Description:
heterodimer, A: mainly beta, 7-stranded mixed beta sheet, 3-stranded antiparallel beta sheet, B: mainly beta
Amino acid sequence: EIVLTQSPGTLSLSPGERATLSCRASQSVSSSYLAWYQQKPGQAPRLLIYGASSRATGIPDRFSGSGSGTDFTLTISRLEPEDFAVYYCQQYGSSPRFITFGPGTKVDIK
Amino acid sequence: QLQLQESGPGLVKPSETLSLTCTVSGGSISSSSYYWGWIRQPPGKGLEWIGSIYYSGSTYYNPSLKSRVTISVDTSKNQFSLKLSSVTAADTAVYYCARLNGYRYYMDVWGKGTTVTVSS
């Protein structure tokens, strides 16, 4: 079973700043199977990034994903007020078939 | 556009079986490109994948829940369902259903979630 670790747990930033969120896997993950989600209080998660670096439909280009192997990054180039939320990474493993989420990184207003 | 809606009891007694249904509208559950899944989130905590199903009925489950989980599909009703047996307070959570891309296994459409409380 692949375990995902996200850091930092909380990121306190101001609007306009750059956010860099890390997702580390306990063993190598195929980039094809790494996704990122945003969740705001009281709402369902929203897909941001799939395949480690492809933006989902309607996601602004200030969101970008990168990485490979065991280290992946979500970057928000300039934080907008609506970006303050919790962000989760998620991976799929094919043998055995298993989906795991990271514990999340909360981006809050400094 | 595609929408998913969870339904079921909001309160379940300990040791009983939690049963939820996800109704898919605006698209067919029988699409060969997608799986369908259940995810839960205990209060104040992160997301936990429960299991997924293909329209043919093929399933895969979280090993930590596998002994208690059954996910089924009813293509005639465009629905899939979750049963979780022998529930305890630890199963109290918001339960989400979602569509999974069948090639990359990410969840691109989510229901709004339904809160299930386990209490006597």
